[in-house]
Amino acid sequence: MGIERPFWRAVAVYQAASLVYAAMLLAHAGGYERPVLGWLVIGVMAAWTAVSTFAYSLGYRRGVLVLDVLVTVGCLLSSTYVQGPDAGPAGVMPVTATWVGGPVLAWAVYAGRRAAGVTAIVVAAADLWLRGFDRFVPLNGAVLLVLAGVAVGHVVQLVKQAEERLQRVAEMEAAGRERQRLARDIHDSVLQVLTMVQRRGMEIGGESAELGRLAGEQERALRELVRSEPAGIGPSEDGSADVARLLRRFESEAVTVSTVTASEPLLLPAHHARELEAAAGAALDNVRRHCPSGTRAWVLVEGDTGAVTVTVRDEGPGIPPGRLEEARAAGRLGVAQSMRGRLANVGGTVRFLSVPGQGTEVELSVPVTPRAGRPRSVSTAVTRLLGTRGAS
């Protein structure tokens, strides 16, 4: 139940205290016109208070809450028969007294201020029907019931949000400690081995030099991985991730990663950012697979108010005309599944531009959602740069 437990206890205390108050009013009034019926209603209220409190403590929610409203409204409307038909229009407090606020508070704890407001309006409408629609009666009690439900629901929502943020901070702190532990272990073992393989491969030369170069690339990528934030936990509170930071792990002697705005993150929802990262990785894999050894590639990350775009360009031999269509017809769906499929799932697009003998350019674009921040466009960055130079 988490942070809700104290609120449910408060609801139980409120209902019990209101039940005692209603019984005291009934005893003080001498039982109204029908004392037996009045005490029967008090008995129903007492039984339901016990049942609902026990159900809430076990975690039962929606069904019990609906029944809570029905039982409360039923007991409230029974006041006409307990007190007499003239009691309501005369302004006499109904037999339920303040006990009618129980379901309003319960809905406030369960679903927040809107549900509490709706419940309060339902209970207030029953009370107004009891007093009569054909005459003006003060609505102080109904107004207070609505305001109390909305206020309590709002407070509960704020407390739940605070609990979620605290949980997120605790998870980030735990992930950071685990990452530091892994970084120490990797530094003492894997990174040292990769460094040694790179050095020895370069010394031996030949094919060993290529193995050494690959070991060096993996060593740098691994260092960047253990140094960066965990995937899915971005710099923003809403679970966004910085695309440029994720793509930094691809940097090597053969791959250059640059961004138009180094000072501000290019944010996307974490899942969208990971899909864009995976698509860019697939494009770089194609460069390593189909281009001669040592072919350089460049990754440019840029964004505007509509989308974040990653451009992967290489200086390889390019894609022969019709090659992608032939691969698709032959059932080789690497490009479609690794790039087009991933980005299509998040509303993104892929565009290929290739000239034989002049390299290939792959443009990966994912739309920006309102939660993901506002990446700065190329034109904005250039305008800001020119403005800064002009001022200096």
Q: Could you walk me through the main structural features you see in this protein, from its secondary elements to its overall organization?
A:
By secondary structure, the chain is of the alpha+beta class. It has two domains: 2-164, no CATH class; 239-391, Histidine kinase-like ATPase, C-terminal domain (Heat Shock Protein 90, 2-Layer Sandwich), CATH 3.30.565. 62% of the residues lie in helices and 10% in strands. The chain is built from 14 helices and seven strands. A five-stranded mixed sheet has the order 2-4-5-7-6. Strand 6 (349-354) and strand 7 (360-367) form a beta hairpin. The chain is elongated.
The percent of residues in helical segments reads 55-70%
| Secondary-structure content class | alpha+beta
Q: Give the number of helices.
A: 14
Number of domains: 2
Roughly how many Å is the radius of gyration? Answer: 34 Å
What sequence of helices (H) and strands (E) makes up the elements? Answer: HHHHHHHHHEHEEHEEHHEEH
